[in-house]
């Protein structure tokens, strides 16, 4: 019998001897606790000492229907007894076939083909390469660049990072990256005094038009996170921007890549964010919630014309050159199928609307807080912007790490609230109830009071 100690302290000590964690300055763990989780129960995580934490960020935006969801767990167990994995080049299997059929059925109209990958960054890499290669196959090899929004984030592999504009992630690796053409974000927070979100969107579309007039001949695609720029600080924009973007892409002959990795599967109030503008992109990137937060999987959906640009005799040399060892993994596909089945069988989006309205009511008083510059929300995503000077919207010095104080307060009071700098955000699993949302907001409000003091 293994009698190795499994307390928080014992597990953290073992971890820190060998493990290097993502997006982390490991030196922080000399004073910031490392939390060993031993099980999940719905919207809650339980550590080795028995303390419980309400998962207010869905474990990096992945979890939809709770940890250890019994439906998804049962589907995984059944699949594991049958087929765990098989090469996806020259072979196929029913979970992948069914998943592709289901994704095409629920996706915006016109998306007819599905390419599987492993994670969100890989999906963005696929879309970028596929867009470029499509134009190359059509005789437009001069199209080699991409347009991205200021403040955008699309992943941390080199291609995905190349179309990102968050300095924290990009600046170190800048010498290795492609240079995107940056279009001004339609972020409503950056609007002029009195300017509505729709007016910001219209103004930014005018600037995008001017940019495409100069550069469309060399541009493969415009890539955006529809409605919410998540890692860029939960910046939100009006759906009109997406509708106008679709028109401009059609007019200037460039692809529209919708990165719905974080915002898809109900986060914004509709199954896909693009639905709120009534548009279909040329490429739709999906991951995170695709499997309900259980296993890594991503998918890129595209159109039949894009697919046909690659469909030729082998000797033509037009095949799409991209692969992953775990492409179309049966276990992950089965988890995704069960996730989609929950959407089909239960009133998920209807219930989310009620939860989102409750969250909005609870956050409303923070608008009057002297150190809160903005409270914004799109569906089940809400964010609170902390600043040193509300009138001038002057941020706190980054070195003061005020958001970290909120995070630490949350851990001490049973809530996982991991801010983006000084933006405190809420993106909980859909299984939370109103009382649990109250716990998240109450904890955040108290944490903010401590964070801005002194």
TrEMBL record:
GO terms for cellular component: cytoplasm. Pathway: Cofactor biosynthesis; biotin biosynthesis; 7,8-diaminononanoate from 8-amino-7-oxononanoate (SAM route): step 1/1. The modification N6-(pyridoxal phosphate)lysine is found at residue 288. Its main location: cytoplasm. PROSITE patterns: AA_TRANSFER_CLASS_3. Its EC number is 2.6.1.62. It is found in: Cytoplasm. The keyword Cell division does not apply. GO terms for biological process: biotin biosynthetic process. Belongs to the class-III pyridoxal-phosphate-dependent aminotransferase family. BioA subfamily. This is Adenosylmethionine-8-amino-7-oxononanoate aminotransferase. It comes from Fulvimonas soli. The lineage of its organism: Bacteria, Pseudomonadati, Pseudomonadota, Gammaproteobacteria, Lysobacterales.
